Amino acid sequence: MLRTLGKRQKGGGTEPSAPPLSSKPPPDPSRNFEKPPDIPRSIEPVRRAPEPPRVYQNTRSSVITQPSEPARRAPDPPSTFRKPQASETIRPAEPTRRSEVPRQKQNDSLPPDFGRIVWITDPEDGFRAAQIIDLSKSGFTLTLLNTKETVTRKYEEVFSSEDDPFKSVEDNCALMHLNEATLLNNCRLRYKNGKIYSYVANILISINPYQTIDGFYSTQKIKEYRGKSLGQKEPHIYAIADKSYREMRRHKKPQSIIVSGESGAGKTESQKSVLRYLCENWGAEAGPIQQRLLETNPILEAFGNAKTLRNNNSSRFGKFVQIHFGEKGNVAGGYVSHYLLETSRICRQASGERNYHIFYQLIAGTSPELHNYLALEQPHCFNYLKNGFVGFFTHPNSNSSTKIPKSRWSDSRFSQDSMVDDFLDFQRLENALKLSGLKEKEIMFIWTTIAGVLHLGNIEFEENIGDSKGGCKVSGGSEGAVEQAARLLGLETMELKMGLCARIMQTKGGARGTLIRVPLKSQEASAGRDALSKAIYTKLFDWLVSRINQSIPFEKSTHFIGVLDVAGFEFYAVNSFEQFCINFCNEKLQNFFNERILKEEQALYEKEGLNVRKIEFVDNQDCIELFEMKSKGLFDLLDEEARLPTPSFKNFTKRAHEENRKHFRLDTPRKSKVKSHREMRDDEGLLIRHYAGSVCYETKHFVEKNDDQLHNSLQILIEQSTSSLLVSLFPSSSDSIKSGNKLKSQSVGSKFKSQLSVLLKKLESTRTHFVRCIKPNNQMIPWQFDGSAILSQLQCAGMTSVLKLMQDGFPSRTSFGDLYSSYQRNLPPKLARLDSRLFAKCLFRALGLDQHDFQFGLTKVFFRAGKFAEFDQMMRQDPEHMMSLINKVNDWLVKSRWRQAQYAVWSVIKLKNKIAYRNAQVTKLQSMTRGYLARQKFSRQIAIYRKACNLLRNSKEIEKILSHLNENSRAKWTSSAHLTIKDLEKLVSHVKLASVDQIEKAENAYEHYVKRVDSMILDLRRQQKSDEVEELERKRREEEEKERVMKEEKERLKRMEEQKARIQKEHEAQLVEQIKKAAKEKEENEKSAQQEKLDAIVPNRLADSDGIAVVMSPESGSSSGNSTLKGKYDLAHWKYAELRDAINHSMDINLLVACEEEFRRRLRIYNEWKSRNASKRDEPAPARAPLSVYDASGSSRQCQQRYFKYTFDAGAQLEFSFSGKTGMWYAHFSGEHIHRQITIRPSQMPQLMIAGRDDLQMCELTLRETGLEQKPGAEITEEEFENQWKMAGGN
């Protein structure tokens, strides 16, 4: 027991030891989960139920010291200190009533939760398992389970673990401890067991295996998931597809499946799986449309996917594929929308990346005749291919490498990938194009156009020495490339040369103006060539998508299911305009996710009156506004720069920083943690803090990449082509608006922004399902789990916030009316009369559903996560199943009415007993009536007797008047008054014994005594009045003197009250100012912490994946809310056991106070951590104090006994909730620290706690920190507290 606390206690005794705890077998050592060296595995610490979460304000503990004395280190612990023994890890169980259950003594030298297994942050694995061995100044001291290394972690870096860390669950909401660590561990366990899917309620998490899993997407697997509810089978992408289809049929509303994740996370394969599932199940009657829908993927992947550093089959455009369904639920057609094709990749690629697949497929897969006709060569012979990776891809088990002639190889080494095979993919592409309805002429047009783009890239320019205007010409080595490009694109060779080396300008004047030919320099000609290549490829891609949509019409469509697949969040060592647009798109989708899952969900719970705790999350709306703001937004600034005569990327960057100065999301490159980024000038880059981390963009090519306009001369050149299909891709220049020498068109950024707005409006009109794809490692190694990278992706996707919301929330719901209407047509008349809400209640009772699994709102019924099977069981539309449910409802009603009949019989029996009771009461009434008649017979005698008794009682007034007379008057009247009273007593006795004939004589005597008494009372009152006049005169003189004295005292008190009020007002103003200052500091600290976190995510992952040099930030101080203690003693390095022993044994008063302050500070922070990491099955522990008590700060004072009471909301588990039930909290403070406390809740036994015995459960704040002194009416007397203590069972 703490000695200082024990002195304050009024009694106590020795406390017996706790009984031994049950043993738990150790885990399997083969799972790399070892026990610590000094702790036997047969003993497990008892985990108490966590306390409700509270709000703390950071405080600075202080100790008593002389101002002039310098700080010194605390003396060494006394010789009685000893190391904690492993056998002392036993802790007592929580009794129901602390004052009545004998407590057992625990080892004071052991910290709370000693030996508990937890998860701690780790830069490589995300989290690692460790065991608590001590409670340090700013966190925990722990031992790693696998290496037995001792480490320290801050409180916010430690998370609770499951009781069995090797048990995995399909739905992460089923975890008992819901935090980032348990979520990551569950994903790790499932991934190592070959299970790549898991749920967070109805959101699917998919981790890419980077390997084909046999039978995992087979036709048999498709059949297994058809018609199955979420949770009935293992998590799978097919379950999400089936759920979306059934909800479309049930609610008659379009559905959308948003597949999101980083590049290489498996989004494209997930989208293909959804399309295949829907087409194979409900597309049999669609004929060729079904096959065309499935064959859209080879076409889109060939022309829109490419190899990047992080993904061999990365989608470089966004697509929203809609599958339309008819009235009967069968596939009726489809539609493909595409967004932001990455055009810069056509002309240049980063080292190690490839151009679009179609270029390599064309070289690898064409027949020799077609290969010669297209004049194709090895990839490294083309300028548009040679700067990147020039090898081919093959499947691991295919022989494609032998089918590609060696004359086409640039690299003898073939890269293997389970999804990409250049030779086989070209054969599939040809079949897909034919199946989509393209004719041979159109297919040949595609091949010639693609080959023409390759040859265009080989055209190079040199200065024309003979041109006085400084123009250029085609170099001698490029003549062959010009001829091949002109032939394949249907152009004249000379026209192509002239169009590339010069541009035509139209001057004003006349009907059409004057055409002027302006020679171009080599750099300008190269830029025009690249612009022409990108324009041709982009128009070809748009035409292909249009032809696909023509082949899958949807005239008979009623609803659709759309699958969205866009490029995931990207970051590289060098990020340009493509990453800028892609990451903006992901910001918008993340915001949509926040709105749909977090904001709208919680708003619905509040509207329907559901008691679901509020979940905080990071809103990225400010980042979206940074891009979209009018005049100040980045897109508007970029467009405004492009309209200038000489646009400059430096001017754009400078203006972006100036217009958005002090914006949290925007900063200069020198604030980046990547070393190469810090070398950039402020006008050369933008550091944007996205939801997934801070990305530094190099703005060097922003202006030119945002310009999607083609020179007028190149437009005219294309119009002269003999290929009608190529001409049809470009609008006529005569119909276009010309601006200078260019055709005026929308910029790339503006076009993408408008497309994205249309997409989001379409998504908002649908019911949304989410699939979060996760990239397991950056090296694309099969079945390798990189915990740190995966944790970063889960955090950025907002899965931890969703996990907490779905654990308390209800992801499935339907209105009472919809539920009733789905059964109404099959209901018999006796059930059809039921109210829709009553019918839902009957249905749930009939199905035997647990009341915890659903909740009734005002207009809807809600189901918890993991109860989709029960929900779907009710909402299924097949008549046979509905009739079985209706029969169950009918049976339940029959049973309910039978119980009502039983109640009616019981009521009749009760009525019979009541009639018998009333008969007995009638007999009693008869007896009372006979008594009444007897009293009427003697009524006259009784009346005179009562009058005489009343007169005797009234005569007592004579004695009362006598008592108010002065002594002389009292002596004069006493004898006659006493004689009168005695005569009255004789009269009463006479009337009582008189016979009937003596009644008249008694009445006359009574009248005589009435007059006698009245006369005497009148005389006495005259005498009393005379005495009172004399007394009043005496008192008047005394009152005048007293009033004079009171007036002087009142004036003195008034002056004191005014002074006190002025001091109190000043004190309150200081408190308000302190609170505002603390709130501002807290907001700034949180903002700084968020900025530091975002700035570190991307650099750390770049360092891990690409080996980029990162600037390490200095270690910040502890964020646990306590700065270094200032004073005589430095207790930062003292262990928990040393503090306890110093408190128990030290004779130094100053050291004692300092140790107690430090001990309680650590205990307060620990209890806050324990509340945050509570298990969802734990019951609320005894409240240490009401939530509103934790709101102030202060320092220690003299030891003074004070008592307080406080009313709190007894039913609320959260600070912002309110249950309507009130409880009382009583506290006894000895000096600054609590000594005893009582917690009284409705319908519960009082909880009594005493310092030194119940420290872990008691309020750990000082009296000043609680703020109770400033709360009106909170302080009570010692007597009131002691009465409550005894009533609650205390000694």
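Next protein, fold it too.
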Amino acid sequence: MSLSKLSSQAPEQALVENMVKMRHLDEYSILRNLECRFTEDEIYTYVGTVLIAINPFRMLPLYTPDILDRYSESGTLAQPPHVFAVADRAFRALLETWKDQSIIVSGESGAGKTESTKLLLEYLMEMSRRSGGDKGAPTESEESEESLEELCLYAQTILEAFGNAKTIRNDNSSRFGKWFEVYFSRGGHIQGAVINTYLLEKSRVVTPEEGERNFHIFYELLAHAATNAEIAKLYSLGSPSSFHYLAQSSVSSINGVSDAQEFVKLTDALTVFQISKEDQANIWRIIAAILHLGNITFKVTSVQTASSTQDGSLIENPDVAKQAASLLKIPYEMLEKALLFHSYGSRSLIYIPYKPQEAQDARDALSKALYAGIFNFLGQRINMCLSKGRGGSLSSHKTIGVLDIFGFEILQTNSFEQLCINFCNERLQSHFNEECFRIEQEEYRAEGVQVEDIPYKNNQPCVDLLEQRPTGIFAMIEEEINTPGGSEKNLLSKMFQQHKGSEYLARPTAKEGLDCFKIDHYAGNVVYKSEGLMDKSRDALHADFEAVMKTSADEEYLPVINQARIDGPLGGVKVDEFKATAKPGGKGKKAQPTLGTQFCLQLNSLMKKLNSTKPHFIKCLKPNMQKQGGLFVAEEILCQLQYTGIVGLCKIRQIGYPERMPLEEFYLRYCPLCYTEPDAESLIMKLAELNVLKDGLWCLGHTKLLMKHEQSNVLSEALEAVRLKACILVQKYCRGWYWRRWLKRMVGIRRFVKDAIAKRDEKLLAEGLEKMDDLPSHGEHLPEKAAAKQLLTRLREEKEAAAMLQSAITARDMKQLEAAISLSKTIKYETDLVKKARELLTQLELEAEVYALCKEAVASKERSKLVEALEAANKHGYDFAEVRQARGLLARMDQEADLLKKYEQSLAAKDLKSVDEVLAKMTDIGMELPPNAKETLANLEKQVARKSLEGALESDLEKAVASRDVAKVEACLQKAVEEGLKAPCVDAAKTFLHNVKKKKEDLGALMAVIKTLEVKMAGTGGIVIADLEAGQKCLKQLASYQFTQDESAQVNGAQQTLRKGMAVHQCVESMHKAISSRDYNLLSTTYETAVKLEIQQDIVEKAQQTMKEIEAEGPQLPTGTMAQILEIARNTRWRFDKYGRLRTREQFAKGKYMNRKKTMETMFSFSKEVIPNSMIDLPSQTSKVAVNINKCLLAFCGVRRSTYPAASAQALMDKGKAIGSLRDEIFVQVCKHLTDNTESKTAERGWMLLCMCIDLFSPSVEFELYLLNFVAKYENHEEWKEYARYCLRRLEEELDMDEEALADSVHQKQVPSIDYITQVVGGEASPFLSEVRNQNRKL
């Protein structure tokens, strides 16, 4: 290993993860240890519990779900140094002690503080998710909202866009400080968050340095406008070089970063924080206005005032100014006046013209004020969403604060911003010294422990030089601002006079500049330029611009932005709070605090907060100034080690006892190790006797036990072992109780079902079967369930048969009775009801026989037949209409014979009177008069009367038939028959009644057939074609009838049942053919049809079993062309959700107690939730790896927020290449992710990942056809066809290789680098699309 010259000076010794364990401890030994570890990509090293993090300036696979799991599951004791370890230590300390924690990330600009902060928050968010557990099924509104954990990560995107910029030292430098407070519940679940921001570098808006960029948002908006002509036209946007505020630096892009893609991420994040599209448009409008303001230029002109002519300014390009005014919705005249003149006076205003430079300064002040307003507005909106939390007051929760503050800066030109930034770093270094040196050494003395004092550089005098009132530099700047005629020159003179002799303030050399002052900071000497110092500290917007903003037509948005600017930084003390303590200045007025004073107050508030928390430190180091990956410049690192006090920290941690615990707290925490000991001292002695407390690693003070880190770790491990043993014991009893309770429940359910079977109670059986569904495997293995299902089916069949019998008995319908009795016989159902039905059927058959005799006798009018029919009727006591009709006809025949006899006797006796009487009687009864009647006139009159009677009868009968009233027709017909009416209407009436009766009989017969069919379809026996043909025959017989509304409904229902019956019959027939031929495609189709038709027959289970047998046989990959193979692969058999090695839905959702149903439903379709188990049935350890693979998949695709999504993809592919059994699992997970995914962004990432995976490794032989089936579905998809075709080409190449060649190919391939994956995502490298397009051109 080639080491630097400085590192080579150190003696050779073993590399250590914690540098307090080094045998030789000096600057060079520390440097050597860091450099050797850095060359092995070990960028993290401990000094005690302080983490040293060296920026690698390249992506490393150190943040995958697997690595996160190591720290979250097993803690930090056995794990190497890592930023996750610091977050885990803070999280566990919060829950164990229930005290506020803080993580202070420090280092110079470009050392990696912002990235470390992101990783800390990502870890805390993941721990919150795991602590929160399942929270139940989300409501419809909650499904569309992001979780609080996601919101915390989205906030970073917004703050980086508006608060970060590329500098000479750092491509993503935070130009503001932030204190991120995350509120946790007692269970470790995030309840809310607040982000405090400090000192936004507003001057960057108007004067970015050469080689640097303005804030990211300007370039992102312009990049978006370059691809969106509508936006470009709306805001008059062009390239960065066309705007003065951006063109001052020649740098407008960042290597490896797409501003257009970053803009898309930004808009997504803004939407998450409920910033509407309209509000976003207003933000872009004001950002564009700021750019146009910067392009306004001024020239000298003479201005006539009331008393004289003065030099003033004139806008050279009014068109640009009008564009800015239009975007701000301000009258151009008002903006022009505010830019060219400033006013003073209270009663009457006097306007003084600006000189060109002054007008330019006024323009810049307005631009900075607008930008600060937008930044504060966004911060307030973020805090509004984050602080809502999950209900309840946040004050009742504890916090973990993460401080990401600007790094120490030494630039070519250092001004007010650098003074504030470096002062902040001085305070933080002082806090670090306090915690790690002074307080620790004082505690050793107080506890009576002899430890050598370690010298350290105390920077408190430098802090006092800057902050102390009234002689501190910030106080003197404020005083000079409030002094009439104050200037930077006077300020310098007073500073040097006041601090004459101070070793921290010095006059610069002539070469450095006479208008400067030099401060000796802990990190080195910095020369500050005094020019503009007072203006920047004053940071005031002239009242003229305040008045102009009030004239804006934008009455909603611009006032909000302006108010946010006035409210000041989010985490600072507001102006109103300071006024009470402000020093009088001017003409008795209270002076407004300057920006420097406000910043000091903010910093005091922050330090007060830090002092109230348990601190955890991360020291970020920058290995080189070129931002080059893998380059370790020893001189740079050594300098940072020296001024941060790392060497002294190593020494004091090595010889001292950094872990100090009050005896009472020690006893409360560690008494489980030996719970018989009554107090702390006896517990300590006992632990020492047991060698848990190691000699030389601890010391007993007056009130505390002091320990080295190794001893603290030993105690923690011992306590963890005791707790684990206790947990296992508790789990033992809990699980025993749980399973006993479960067994008791299962026994109870089985007993309940047995009782239901014994009682033959349908309701109890259904309830018992529903309860059995809660048992393992839904109780299918228990004999009671099969018996209960069989009995329940039987009871339902009997119920249906009984209903049919009762209906037939009530209707007294012979065909219904025959059908019901036939069904009862089919299902072997014998009850009194069946006996009653049979008796009724016999009775009805006898009635029908008598009815036929009577009808025939009446029709023949033969007396002998009438007598025979009436004898039969009298014998059985029948008296229905036909019997009465026959009886009436016989009586009439007897009466007529008697009259005829009397008539003949009267004629024989020549008794005219008697003849008249007989004829009269004949006439009265309507009997036909004999042909030898003497009185023709009387006969004619009788004939007329007869005709009149017949006409009335015919009329009544025709009306009754026309009305289709059965009762009326029967009455009229009986009367006509009795009167002996012979007419067509009589035949029509008889036909009508016959048809009505026949329709009723046929309809009853149809419903009986349908009932039988329904019962058979609901049962397991199945139906035959004869059942369907009987129904069709009944329908044909009913075709000529007219129906009432109720009858039509019955017929329609019968037709639907017949159609379903035909479908069931055809499905079952096809299923028989499919089973015999083992045709998987037909089996699959018929099985799905059977499920839809709810067919309960045994053949369905047999079909399902046959499908499983075929699937278990595995695919036999065919030979032939790709087109032939694809033709086979398109068969539904090869759908990826039918892969034989997949888990069942129940196995997949095992262990998921909330949202279990939804998890099962989305097993084979897109879901934002992490899978609970592997998709394929894998061993438990491999299944756990599969779950982490899913986390990587979701992180890469953007479903889960991740700091390094490309690293997640690389980790996924690395697992697939290394572990062959996981390859099919990866492909199945990607297929699941892409199925029914309506989110184009996440779906496209999924296709990219699928292409890269197929490039790297192939599916197993068993899964190849399944993968081909999935990809082939998208071959002509409008959006994904090019990705799909690329996959097909790669799979075709793999199909042509034998297994050995394929294995060699996988072995030789390299997992894509993180940089390459990043380029693929960013569109800089698109091998999938370009190759397919080239192939298409060839074709």
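About the second fold: The radius of gyration is 49 Å.
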